[in-house]
Structures are given as C-alpha cells and as structure tokens.
Design goal:
single chain; MetI-like fold; 11 helices; about 0% strand
Amino acid sequence: MTTIERASTARPQWRTRFGGREGLIGWTILAVLILIAILAPVLAPHSSEAIDSTRIFAKPDLSHPFGSDDLGRDVFSRVLYAYRASLSIAIGSVLLAMIVGVPIGVFAGYVGGWADLVLMRAVDLLLAFPALLLAISLIAILGPGNAVALLAIAIIYVPIIARVVRSSVLVVRGQPYVLGARTRGASHWAIVRGHVLPNSAGPVLVQASVLMAFAIVIEAALSFLGLGSQPPTPELGLMLAEGNNYLTTAPWVEIFPGLAIAVTVLAFNLIGDGLRRSFDPHGVTR
C-alpha cells in the first residue's frame, strides 16, 4: 500500500473517531469555546465589570463589537467571561452525574434481582419530579450560586445516566464474550472492567453530550430566574435577565448572549450526533 493510499484510508478512520463531519464541527466549536473561556482575561478588550456611565446602551462599534449594557459594561467582554460559568456548570454537572450514575447503573444492570429493583425505584422517584422544579427546590434549600446550580443539575441527571447505563449493561451481560469470561473463571470485577464497561460506554457518552446541551439551557434558565450566578458575575442567563427590559431599546444586550447559548448548545448536539454515528454506524438504533 502506497503512502497516499494509507493516508486516504487513515483520514476516514480519524474522522470516524470524532463522529464524522458533524462531530468534528462540534468538537471544533467546543474547543474554541473552551479556549475562549480559559483565555477570557487575555481576549476580553475591556473589563467585564467596569461601569462606564458615558456608554450606557451604546451601540456596537469597533471598540465594543457587542455594544454596552444598562451600566455601560462591554457586552463582548462579558460574553467571553460568561462562558467560564456556563461551560464549567454544564460539563461539571454531567461529569458529577456520571460519577454517581454510572456505578448505580452498572451495579443494577449486572447484579439484577432485588438490587436492580430497589435502585431503579429510587431512580424513578427522582424522575417523577420535573427537572426545573427539582433544581429550584434544591436551590431554595441550599441558596443560589454556581456550585449549587451545578449540584442541582447533577442530581437531575443522575437517574437519567443510571437508566441509560443499566439498559446497556443488560444487553452486554448476556453477550457470548461475557459468558465465556465467566466460564473461564474471571471475577465479576474483571468482567465488569474488561467487558461490561467498555461495551456499555457508547450510549452513555452520547447521552452525556446531549445532557450538556440541556445543562446549558437549564443553567441559563436558573440564572435568568435569579437562582444561579449572582450579579455582577458575567453569566449568559443572567445577562439575558438583565437585558430583558431593554429588548426594544437595546436589542444587542439580549441578542449576543442568546446567540452564545445557541452556539454552545449546537456544539454539544453536533458532538452527540457524531458520537451516535460512531457507535451506531449502520443506524440500527435510529
């Protein structure tokens, strides 16, 4: 095989690992957003909290491409800093939910019996509450803030993650390679670590990417209601709430944070679609 042939063969495999074209676009957008969040102090042309009474509701221009808000703060700089809170809560809440939900789902699906019955009924109890109402209730008890919002969203996602993992484990545990490992005398931990977890990871990774997209929206909704990030911290949902009364007079205060949320949700959804295509290339579960 020539070098050109090897390169042409490797390129599709490389794209497949990232979920094809859709997944690659999503990963690229997310990487740029994470880079923006990390480098916000360097990239922001102005302070995110500096008040300028001479620029109240100033229109977008070259020095302030997103205009200014009701306190004269630069909207562009605030959007850059806002990605820090939004992305950290979205990614952190899903990771925390996976840390708790994956072991629950694996144990319930692999062991079965009474363990499965008890754990899944507890999970169903959490699923009985509307997601946003449960988050608001937790924040009402613990108080507002980014950490509490992250914890509230994670608690909402634990039963979803546990359910997805359990369903995958129920399928995997009956496969011939698992039965063969049991026949050879492999321990339960070795079977779970070597066979069950790797072959059950696909659906939960797809679900996790979709949940991150929803976490962005939930977190923005909580901040919009005053239950998430608190002023003067820049946060996309909080920026929407602050500019809600000025939509007709200064629409840029609402438009640009809204577009920032839309771009982030789009990135996670593209990643989810790409991962689904990678783990299910023939579209069996579509």
